[in-house]
Design brief:
Residues 1-22 form the signal peptide. The chain is of the alpha/beta class. It has helices at 2-23, 27-31, 39-52, 63-77, 80-89, 103-106, 126-134, 158-162, 205-212, 231-244, 260-266, 298-307, 345-353, 371-375, 405-433, 449-453, 468-482, 510-513, 547-559, and strands at 109-113, 120-124, 189-190, 193-197, 201-202, 218-224, 249-255, 275-280, 288-291, 314-315, 333-338, 359-364, 383-387, 393-398, 459-465, 499-505, 526-532, 537-541, 565-566. The strands form 5 sheets. It has a 5-stranded mixed sheet with strand order 5-7-6-8-9, with helices on both faces.
């Protein structure tokens, strides 16, 4: 009897251990990596398997459970402390022995581990990944995390970043794209400044209004509630993107449990999963929230963010770019000359940060031998040329080199701020010398048409002439009136006038006037046209050209006392 009892105990114990072994899940085996695998190898394995077994892509039976195992395994091995605890105790929590919890307690699976001296368990419920969007028509998540090596698990690194800056390639502090001594950056670290973490700011209603709304900086925002599982993973992806766009992008999170009114007002309250938005300047000068609905991977999210960076800089053809273009408004103007076919990333960022203080332009040039480049006094590219509001030209910097994006933005911001101070000083000096503050009325050309009479200008006053004598008379009248505080004369927040004044040589641009009058006002030596670009309407003054009469006409235009007529066609300068 005793022998039978011993045999029964032995067989029961053997069956127990065999059962435990069958249900054991070793995170190393799940990801298919060795125990001495580097973080880079772990990342690659996780990325490959998560794509293979993602429930949205793999409909086979068991894919859901396998996907959960993969995420759970990566959660342990990607965290150095949890990995150390697992290697030591067989449990990522670091407490040897069987832990509390069971499938009944947690509504999930219980996996026994035997990776160390003590055998423990950890649980992963089937609802865990579902709360991240696995079922019910919700969005699914696929996560990636950058490593300490030169590029992330998605194949983009510093080369991709700097190829979009100002032209050039990274390495050795190259021109607008050089990254001196760079070997890349790990997520959560600043490029070129290792060990400095990228932190996600907590956003409240006050912070949102003060630091985000229409401040010119692009923000990547996460809306979540603490009960939603998965927001930590999304934060990791966001941090990786932010680390690659240091200086161009800020990141924040909105806890909708503590900020319910903000989330409701903005329409960003999360449901079954966290939501990510970009505060974008893509559509207009006023920022707006745009939701990201792509794959939860760093590379597509980064591209999404880059697409929504500010677009306050106007692309111009340097050959047709005239000095009168940049002296239209009271703001100083800056033009970037680079070899890039598209507006460089850094210039877009700077145009957002300083759009209330400058008019931004950029032009593609091939080399300094170009006559238009020589004419500006530029001897090396990339270069920034600026004009004070009085029309005085300055080469702010030529042959620019950078170390990384963030330092470049800081250095060039300081350069622009210095130029703004110079402009204020020059304007103050000019006001003392000329109490009337006379300024030159620009001649309307193809290159400055959008700045003077484009859709951003509410009212454009065009003085058309056919002789030098009539030009001088019109210019004198308009110059006098432009100094007066007429109704709606200057009420825009960015310093631009809500009414602009310009002259038109009707003898050379007769076809332009045909948009307003079939005969092009050919019977008149001079005519004044008030044009509203947004509405496509106009009113003409053909009476006696005196300061008093013209002032009365313009005042009536601004006060809505004059009937406007639809243009025959959209006026175009050729």
């Amino acid at each position: 009897m005793g022998n039978r009892l011993v045999l029964w105990i032995f067989l029961s114990a053997l069956l127990f251990f065999l059962t435990m072994e069958a249900t054991t899940i070793d995170p190393y085996k799940v990801l298919g990596v060795e125990r001495n695998a580097s973080q880079r190898e772990i990342q690659k394995a996780f990325h490959k398997l998560s794509l293979q077994y993602h429930p949205d892509k793999n409909k086979n039976k068991g894919a859901q459970a396998k996907f959960s195992e993969i995420n759970n395994a990566y959660e342990i091995l990607s965290d150095e402390e949890k990995r150390k605890n697992y290697d030591t105790y067989g449990d990522e929590k670091g407490s040897p022995g069987f832990g509390a919890g069971s499938p009944g307690d947690h509504g999930g699976y219980t996996y026994f581990t035997n990776g160390g001296p003590g055998k423990n368990q950890f649980t992963y419920g089937p609802s865990d990944w579902q709360s991240m969007g696995g079922q019910g028509g919700s969005k699914s998540f696929s996560f990636s995390f950058g490593g300490p090596s030169g590029s992330s698990s998605f194949g983009f690194g510093m080369d991709d970043i700097f190829s979009n800056l100002f032209g050039g390639k990274p390495g050795g502090g190259g021109q607008f794209g050089g990254f001196s001594g760079s070997t890349g950056s790990r997520p959560g670290s600043q490029p070129g400044s290792r060990g400095s973490p990228v932190s996600i700011s907590a956003i409240s209603s006050q912070v949102y209004k003060k630091e985000i709304v229409d401040q010119g900086m692009t923000w990547l925002l996460l809306s979540y509630t603490p009960s939603l599982k998965g927001h930590q993973h999304v934060e990791s992806v966001i941090k990786e993107v932010a680390s690659s766009l240091q200086g161009a992008l800020k990141i924040g999170s909105i806890n909708c449990e503590t900020e319910p009114f903000l989330c409701k007002d903005l329409g960003i309250y999360p449901r079954r999963m966290p939501r990510v938005f970009v505060y974008s300047y893509k559509v207009s000068e006023r920022g707006s929230l745009v939701e990201y609905d792509g794959d939860w991977a760093a590379k597509p999210l980064k591209m999404f963010c880059q697409d929504h960076l500010p677009r306050f800089s106007k692309r111009v053809d340097l050959k047709h770019f005239e000095s009168s273009t940049v002296t239209v408004h009271k703001l100083p103007s800056v033009v970037l000359l680079s070899t890039k076919k598209d507006t460089p990333v850094i210039w877009r960022v700077l145009s957002g940060l300083h759009h209330n203080h400058f008019l931004f332009y950029n032009a593609e040039v091939h080399d300094v031998s170009d006559p238009t480049v020589k004419k500006l006094g530029v001897d090396a590219l990339p270069a920034i040329v600026g004009w004070l509001s009085n029309g005085e030209k300055h080469v702010l910097k030529a042959g620019i080199t950078i170390k990384d994006m963030k330092s470049a933005i800081n250095e060039l911001s300081a350069l622009l701020e210095g130029f703004e101070k110079k402009n204020k000083k020059a304007s103050s000096s000019q006001a003392k010398k000329s109490p009337t503050g006379e300024k030159q009325i620009p001649l309307l050309t193809e290159s400055n048409f959008d700045a003077l009479c484009g859709e951003k200008t509410p009212v454009c006053i065009i003085g058309a002439f056919r002789s030098s004598k009539e030009r001088k008379k019109l210019e004198s009248i308009l110059n006098t009136l432009s100094q007066k505080s007429l109704s709606r004369q200057q009420n825009s927040a960015d310093g631009r006038d809500s009414i602009s004044y310009t002259l038109l040589d009707a003898s050379k641009k007769a076809s332009f006037l045909n948009a307003f009058d079939k005969a092009g006002f050919k019977s008149l030596d001079k005519v004044l046209v008030a044009y509203k670009p947004r509405r496509g309407t106009f009113a003409a003054f053909e009476g006696e050209m005196t300061t008093e009469e013209v002032e009365r006409f313009i005042g009536s235009v601004l006060n809505g006392d004059i009937r406007f007529t639809k243009t025959r066609q959209k006026p175009v300068l050729k």
